[in-house]
Design brief:
Chain lengths: ~190, ~190
């Protein structure tokens, strides 16, 4: 099929649904929805998230040299969406949504109790890219609800029911196992 | 629910499924599966992808200052998986899978014809993080199959049937629209 040019836009799906948790200069917990981020290194385990300098979260990460990434389940999709709509400079987003901030015991940032998986990160690097700053953090620990762990003690994607973000919509993870096994399905092409 | 520590591991889902396309020093097209990448800036539109220095793709990006990201549909999940199992230094992955390299008219890299969405990037920055180098590219253009465009001329996530990657499994996008609307569902918490 012939491909058509749609311009130099950002267009890659699926995207993550991250709730970035911080304390601001006054110690108020804040949380912001971010879809632009992911894993970026194995050793050390690192994750990246991009934040506009105008966001309350931006100054908080720079001040505290720490942040958390809480991964929301589909059950709190509306609350998660809200945290991307308003600024923590004006609203107490935890109070408005009823979500619960929990102080990390490892980094100077709060995570979201209602999220099945939370990741605690210390700031490693900040890269100014234009409209956004990319913050790179070293993973200090991951904490997970015990009921979503798989047999291997790793969070189970289906049990987590993480949000899947794509333009304008939030999708639910399919309720059954993926039918294609990674690091396996491709072996038929091996010589 | 009490959270349990599972250690400083990489654990964030869903992940992207990217096929990173490059020409090596000899001009041979190569393609590599990458789940560690995403969008990282609006203006300019930028994407990042992490690659180990040992990979054939790593030297190719550094030599050509360019790469592509092709987003595979679930129909080529096995071929995509294969491209992460072998090195382009040893195998001609396009020949082995039957996938078709197409020379970008904008950057010095090939994309995968069979992917519904392809993104052409010029190298902006390389950041050595430890086991992986993060390559940041500026999006020069996005090209898409016309039959997967939505009414807004943006690729439709459901029509694309992109792969959703999570530990050990590749999931299919749900066949129906997301039930939760982003930038909308959260408005009920606005004051």
């Amino acid at each position: 099929m012939e491909k058509v040019s749609i311009g130099a836009i950002n267009c890659a799906y699926p995207l993550a649904s991250f709730l970035v948790g911080t304390y601001d200069a006054e110690g108020k917990p804040n949380v912001m929805f971010a879809a632009w981020g992911g894993i970026c290194c194995s050793t050390p385990a690192c994750m990246n998230v991009s934040v506009r300098p105008q966001r309350h979260t931006h100054a908080a990460i720079e001040a505290r040299k720490a942040f958390t990434i809480s991964i929301p389940g589909i059950d709190i999709a509306a609350q998660a969406d809200y945290t991307g709509l308003v600024s923590g400079a004006k609203a107490d987003k935890f109070a408005e949504t009823g979500l619960t901030p929990v102080r990390s015991n490892l980094v100077d940032a709060p995570y979201v109790a209602e999220c099945p998986v939370v990741i605690e990160l210390s700031l490693k690097d900040s890269i100014s890219l234009g409209s956004h700053t990319m913050f790179i953090g070293v993973v200090e620990d991951v904490k997970a609800n015990s009921d979503i762990l798989g047999d291997n003690r790793i969070p189970d994607f289906v049990k987590m029911q993480a949000m899947i973000y794509a333009p304008g919509n939030i999708y639910q993870v399919p309720a059954k196992d993926g039918s294609v096994k990674a690091y396996s399905a491709g072996k038929k092409y091996l010589k």
